[in-house]
Amino acid sequence: MTEDFERLRERLRPECDSLIAQYPDRRSALLPIMHLFVAEEGYASKEAMRCCAQMLELTPATVESVVSFYTLFFQKPVGKYMLQVCRNLSCTLNGAEDIMAYFREQLGVGHFQTTADGTFSYEEVECLAACDRAPCMQVNLEFVYDLTPQKIGEMLAAMRSGTYEVAALPQRKRPERSWAVEQGSQIARGERSAGGVGVEDADDAGGIGDSSGIIMLDRILSDPARFAGRTRERTVQEPAAILESMQE
Amino acid sequence: MLQPARVLMQGIGEADLRDINVYRERGGYRQLERAFKEFTPAQILDIAKASGLRGRGGAGFPTGNKWAFLPGTDQPRYMVCNCDEAEPGTFKDRMLLEEVPHLVLEGTLIGAYGIGCHQAFIYIRGEFKRGYRIMREAAEEARAAGLIGRNLFGTGYDLEFTIHRGAGAYICGEETALLNSLEGKRGEPRLKPPFPATQGLYNMPTVVNNVETLAYLVPIMERGAQWFASAGTERSKGFKIVSVSGHVRRPGNYEVPMGTPVRAIIDLAGGPREGRTIVAVQPGGGSSACIFEEHLDWGYDYESMQKAGSMQGSGAMVVFDDTTDFVKAAYALVRFFSHESCGQCTPCREGGHWLEQTLERLVHYRGVPSDIEILKKAASQLTGLNLCALGDSIEPFLASVINRFPEQFEARVLMKVAD
Q: Which ipTM did the prediction report?
């Protein structure tokens, strides 16, 4: 954990504590706490997920499995301006295809990619609930309506010169070409186990679960007292608790 | 020509109703005070029932009956306002959130009192950053004015209100997925039963109501259940905000009595573009089948839309004129559902993906003859086989337009792209 992150964590801690206090169960503060860190770091960093896990008394793998479910928690750094253009029905009926083609041409990148200079990240997204002003988009989650090539050209120029009205996202790390988590590493994306059991899978091949220590079944068997109470108590509410206990 | 009703949309565009002082000058929070001072929760429930109000989020379930399912236990219970609006074509809840946050809050608090709970939540879609900011400010103002918190209006009744922001997932609009998300979990729908009424948030009795549904409680309290029930039709009572978009001249939100003819609503939105004719309307959001020219004079209400082979759903009306490429339109929607499937149920996860790939081939004029058959057979292998309604929503639009405009789909088969 970097020094920087420790400072950030301490600065946010009071707000995290007050978020936790708003809910009958502290785990409910998972999304709100991650939103806080994402607002500061520009993406959902592994440090933030570990920190969130600690605050909520969860395993890092559990937090990652939740974070990876939500598309607004980018798991890798993104550019200063996240351009999310609607590709859904009402925008399609009003020329979204041309708008998307124009963006791709102007930026030289495609869906889910970041420009080489790290200024723009581009994504084609689903309905943003602004169909009356189609075609529409969001820039760092602020709406831009009634898109035309001219409007887009002016917007991109303002972003390049740093005069655009919407604040740039924090840039704690240089973005890569894409913020997508590697294809084929289903477990690293925190998806459900492929075996059909459907529990949150923490046997993590590259996520944050590994560094927190994977505990195999034989360790539970070798030290049953350490896990027994917690497992029994939590199994009643959610079967996934057995696996969570195993991870600790 | 029909004039739009002005019930929830009263005052929008005339005054800044985000300001609690402006809202109160216009009678705001008076109904909340009356609810607490003059009525018991049981009486509020009776008013909700008598008004005939039905869920405005899509399912159309009678609101009072939903509340009445709560068991009479002394367990903690919760009210959750569902503002995870993401149904394609729907933009009414975002408008209410951004324009009349205090009305949404007042309705939610009245609903919370109506079910006798002491903690209410609003779940706001992650993309609604502006709406989230506005609701936070509104709630702070309301708290400062003593409308949230302890001992409301000196009655000794405590009521907390928590704003929860999602993080990008259409499926969280499904009530059990929403509850999982609110519990800090992946937004995956739960197996029902048990229903949220008995085992919802934190396994406690819970009601999840749509933004528009809860907001209507305020005018219902003010003007009476009979007033609301006298508008609309026999079984679809009251008013409805319709989000009209697509090929119309003035897309926007229009509030009308239930049962208003579809054509009259399209006329409110300016009618078709110059020289164009309307060939289809999707009347209830991305999940609904299309209705066609022969249905345009039918009433816009739950029953008529069902009879027309579709549904009123969330109240999103997407209008298609004679320039529409229905293969592309179907592709946009199927791709959406495929993208938003949570992946728990195989028919939805795999079926959506297959349909998306098949339609993508057709869009690019690379279809093979069996593609049309695959698309037509999809319904029997998708619908009714999933935990939640998302899987059942993939195919209705596609099926309706492939039956109506088969030539558009057939034209994409066995043709090569002109290079």
A: 0.95
